[in-house]
Amino acid sequence: MANFRKLPIKNLSIDINGSYVETTNNNKTDRLYRSTNGLANEVYGVYKPYEVYFKNLNIGFIFNYHLPKAGLVISLRTQHFFIEDKTMQEINQLYAYIDKDLNKKLLTEAQIKDNTYLPHIRNGNAGETTYDLDKVYHNLNLKISKDFLNGFKFSFYANNFLDLKQTETVLVNGSYIKNIKTDLLTLSFGAKIEYEF
Fold it and tell me: pTM of the predicted model, to two decimals?
């Protein structure tokens, strides 16, 4: 993070923030797969948790321009996402099952490797899913605030006012799919009135 309060342009301040994050989420909870045979003794197949790898690089700027005589503050907040990748590795190797009495039974090494053993509790959707940005994307938010001498303050804001959208390429078990990112900040407007006494 960095702040620039004294700039050649009077009444202008700039805040800069950025981050790089690279994490691995190791979930410790087993996953259960319901049996496709309701009459079998094995009610659930038990699978190891999957891991999620996440990598993110972004930088943001906040420009504040203050006009004291008019009681006006104009703020422009920008966000720039350079990397936003996620990989989910699902290692769907059956290693145990839950019986009708809710007892957990471990399989032998030979039973684990035999894909024909207990097929009704085997989930064949193992694989890896990768989400990658197609290009750098940006988000621009504008806020204008006006202070009145009688204690009222009026603010107007517009989020993602350019209505920018971004696509990502999803690799699912060797197949590429292109989607619009669903977690983007959508175009929206609003206003707020405050009174101090």
Answer: 0.65
